[in-house]
Specification:
flat, 2 domains, single chain
């Protein structure tokens, strides 16, 4: 990517108040796209034929429109979308400190104490915005953060936090916590993330 394109991407990130450089974003996209399987790892001819004969009505039409290249492209677009969303919807330590009206060392102490959750972006901590309500943290956040598996990444955690849950009366975990309700059911959902 030429320096003019990198400069344009840096300008775009600044326009949307994303505290990342173009190079950091490109490294994250590269990592996400590395996880997309090659076309050879999609459905084989035998699997396609099996689906045609056993999966039922309408499957043939879907399979006629499907191709390995289109599948890889769709997966790559989704990986890029999820990565971009996770990064754009997060703050650096300095931004979090400004939001909370505290200094950066206080944010670092909260991260160490697991009162805030972060993920690593090439040695820089990124703090997902979903943890904040206005200029404060969600009620019960400490209980919730303690339950997040150490292997969890920002995309599945954010997805769970924004998805309505039957165990929470159809509310999202964020809506549940924002009301000041018991954080234990949200913690239970998060603790099972590594089994998905």
């Amino acid at each position: 990517m030429g320096s003019e394109n990198v400069d344009s991407l840096d300008a775009l990130l600044a326009k949307h108040h994303v505290d990342l450089t173009a190079r950091e974003l490109l490294r994250e996209l590269d990592a996400a796209l590395t996880e997309v399987p090659p076309a050879s790892d999609t459905l084989s001819a035998g699997e396609i034929e099996f689906l045609r004969t056993t999966a039922g009505e309408g499957v043939g039409e879907v399979l006629d429109q499907w191709s390995p290249a289109a599948e890889v492209r769709a997966r790559a677009v989704e990986a890029a979308r999820q990565t971009t969303a996770a990064l754009a919807d997060s703050l650096g330590t300095k931004e979090a400190a400004e939001l909370l009206g505290i200094d950066r060392s206080a944010v670092s102490r909260r991260l160490t104490a697991r009162a805030l959750w972060s993920f690593d972006l090439h040695g820089h901590r990124r703090i997902p915005r979903w943890q904040f309500v206005g200029d404060d943290v969600l009620p019960g956040l400490g209980t919730v953060v303690a339950a997040i598996p150490s292997t969890a990444g920002p995309v599945p955690v954010a997805a769970l936090m924004h998805t309505p849950q039957p165990d929470l009366g159809g509310r999202t975990p964020l809506e549940h916590l924002a009301t000041g309700a018991d954080p234990t059911p949200v913690a239970a959902l998060l603790s099972s993330l590594d089994t998905w």
